[in-house]
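Long-time lurker. I teach an intro course on protein structure, and each term I like to show students one example going from raw sequence to a predicted 3D structure in token notation. This year I'd like something fresh instead of my usual example. Would anyone be willing to generate the tokens for the chain below so I can use it in lecture? Attribution to the forum is fine with me.
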Amino acid sequence: MRTRDLSTIFKALSHPHRLAIFLRLARCCERHGCDPETCSRLCVGELGNGLGIGQPTISHHLKELTQAGLIRTRKCGQSTECWVTETTLDDLSQFFLKVKEA
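-- Reply from a regular --
Happy to contribute to a lecture. Here you go:
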């Protein structure tokens, strides 16, 4: 991964609400892998549960995570499904392994 890409990713994850949203989505990947067809996707409303923030703020955070390439979204009727991009966790794992080995 390029330094610019990593900077964008870490900037997106630096906000506590965005990090919480990302971790909720990533937990699904831990259980099922990041195959968007089998991973249970979460709707925007579900992602906000327990965060104490409104729907517009959640949408803003999702936009930031999407622009950083960390998650994907898809409109399904009146709902929007979200999931971690297929290679995100592997890419981050490889980055941290390289840092550890250096």
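Some talking points for your students: The chain has a mean pLDDT of 85. Residues 16-32 form the longest helix (17 residues).
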